[in-house]
Amino acid sequence: MNEALHTAATLRARSEGAAATLPGLLLQAERLAATILLGDHGRKRAGPGDAFWQFRAAQPGDPRRAIDWRQSARGDGHFVRETEWQAAQSLMLWVDDAASMRFASADRPSKLRRAQTLALALAVLATRAGERTGLATLPEPPRSGKAQLIRMADALMERGDVPDYGAPCPRVMPMGARAVFLSDFLGPAAAVTDALTAAADRGVQGVLVQILDPEEEAFPYDGRTVFESMSGAVRFETLKAGQLRDDYLGRLAKRRAALRDLCQRTGWRYQLHHTDASAEAALLSLYTALERRR
């Protein structure tokens, strides 16, 4: 009985701890999303839908049934009635939760926290625009509404045993969806190539966001240094860390060039974000890039 009570108390404590963190992440994401002025959902363009958008002059090639004869009777020319684009789209998000993403230097947020916040802020914006959102790590299809945001925030905050480096989930995404992958992309490159290639084959385009801590870019180490992976599985000690700088920076640049090339070949966009940079600027850049993918 005492063991059962202890187990129940432990589970309750864990649940309360998760519940205390969950609203914080969602609130932070909503505040970040509020910095993006959507206007009227950013939708003002012609396309499939029911709401009237505008009349335009008929052009060669327009079918006869597209002409609005009542409007045309008021003038000397023929006019076509256009509706506002209202097609619901799906936004798929993948946030790397591997151990390497928990790295943070100085008083900066961890790469994981920045990735979680940006992803959830994008989901907030998409939901406000009437779109469906989903996580590539969840088996459920993308959905709309506030309840989905809560489910996503809950999933993003889950903790468990993770590898040192992450890789995109090999999930089949909805045809024509948009997607954003957020990671440091320091792990195996083949998995990223496979994921973006499979996505492109289904007409899925999006943005690949590489998130790095400034210390990972500067490599400010010299002399005797102990390097250890975030999980503690790998440990390396050297007396001459400064001699590793050029080789390390060269490999990092090579990885970045490979990611850019992969995005170019698959129709995606590559963006680099540092955790000491503005989250607002990163979100605006992401939102703009996704809007161009419509």
UniProtKB/TrEMBL annotation:
Pfam families documented for this protein: DUF58 (PF01882)
Domain DUF58, first and last residues per copy: 55-256
InterPro entries, sorted: DUF58
Tree of life domain: Bacteria
Protein name, per record: DUF58 domain-containing protein
Organism for this UniProt entry: Jannaschia donghaensis
Phylogenetic lineage: Bacteria, Pseudomonadati, Pseudomonadota, Alphaproteobacteria, Rhodobacterales
